[in-house]
Specification:
Largest interface: A-B, 51 and 53 residues
Number of strands of chain A: 5
Number of helices of chain B: 6
Oligomer: heterodimer
Distance between the termini of chain B: 6 Å
Strand content of chain B: 5-15%
Order of helices and strands of chain B: EHEHEHHEHEH
Mean pLDDT of chain A: 92
Largest sheet of chain B: 4 strands, parallel
CATH class of chain A: Alpha Beta
Structural class of chain A: alpha+beta
Number of domains of chain A: 1
Shape of chain A: elongated
CATH architecture of chain A: 2-Layer Sandwich
Low-confidence stretches of chain A: none
Order of helices and strands of chain A: EEHEEHEHHHH
Mean pLDDT of chain B: 93
Chain lengths: 152, 148
């Protein structure tokens, strides 16, 4: 086996994903370059990939998020931008992990709406969502309908 | 600032909402980053070496597939150190082969066994559910205290 020498040790990489009618990844990239001080910023179709020292990346994320706080979402990434083990320029096809993000992009407009609404109303007054673990028993009316349908 | 395990561990929405409310999300990217930034023997693409399934023996028996044990070497320590958990139950993106699917079942089982605050949710399917979803997460995270 070959010896492995890591690169970019001590750095963090974060995805900045934008889902907005008003802001494009290019706008975010310009803002990112304005406030960046040595971090690596890559513009993608869905937003930015920012890589650098943790404090610097946190600062850039904080500044970029101010552009449209309810429509910009951030998550960690394990690999630095353009890493040949992950970058689709080398592998072809979608990047592993993109499909998960693609699925969540269909839900994110509802989350953005929730973030906007909670600025206008108190979270404590919003009813709780349905408990996914609750076992919904068959109520007697539905059972009677099933029996009637079988008998007729 | 509490360490919150998120399931699915790759979730963009959960990762963002947890960090937005001043807590630390424990996601798979953090575990992968730790491995690819550590020197050793080359084992692309994720630097998962034959040592990982051995470490996974702490959470899964030896007859369990190595794929589950290798993955548990990533997620097990994070489940051990988490102080709260948010679980999305209808995450279709968390499907997979024997390794992924069984690891996901084991992760959820271990989280439910652990005596920590947990929040179970489904993905929102409309704007009303979106408001309830975000409000539930906000109440849960604010209740943990110690936000940065």
């Amino acid at each position: 086996m070959t010896e492995y020498t890591p690169v970019h040790v001590g750095t963090v990489t974060k995805y900045i994903v934008v889902e907005s009618f008003e802001i494009t990844p290019a706008d975010l990239a310009i803002r990112g370059y304005e406030v960046s001080n040595g971090a690596m910023i890559k513009e993608t179709c869905f937003g930015l990939v920012v890589s650098g020292k943790p404090d610097e990346v946190d600062r850039i994320v904080e500044e970029v998020r101010k552009v449209d706080p309810d429509h910009i979402f951030v998550k960690d990434r394990g690999f630095p931008p353009g890493d040949p083990r992950r970058c689709r320029a080398n592998l072809g096809g979608a990047r592993p992990g993109y499909h998960g993000m693609e699925f969540e992009m269909t839900v994110i407009p509802y989350v953005s709406h929730g973030l906007e609404e909670l600025k206008k109303q108190n979270a404590a007054t919003v009813p709780a969502p349905a408990n996914p673990l609750a076992h919904e028993s068959l109520d007697i009316t539905s059972l009677q309908k099933l029996i009637d349908a079988q008998e007729s | 600032m509490a360490k919150v395990f998120i399931y699915p561990a790759t979730s963009l929405i959960l990762s963002d909402l947890v960090s937005r409310h001043g807590h630390t999300p424990l996601s798979s990217a953090v575990a992968i980053r730790e491995r690819i930034q550590t020197a050793g023997l080359e084992s692309p693409p994720l630097q998962i070496t034959p040592e990982e399934p051995k470490k996974g023996l702490k959470w899964a028996a030896v007859e369990v597939p190595a794929g589950v044990r290798g993955r548990m070497a990533l997620y097990g320590p994070m489940i051990g150190e988490c102080e709260a958990a948010i679980i999305i139950n209808d995450a279709d993106l968390a499907f997979g082969c024997m390794g992924c699917a069984r690891t996901n079942e084991l992760i959820k089982f271990l989280l439910r066994q652990k005596d920590i605050p947990k929040l179970d949710l489904n993905y929102p399917k409309n704007e009303d559910e979106g408001v309830k979803f975000v409000a539930a997460i906000k109440r849960f995270l604010d209740g943990l205290g110690g936000a940065k």
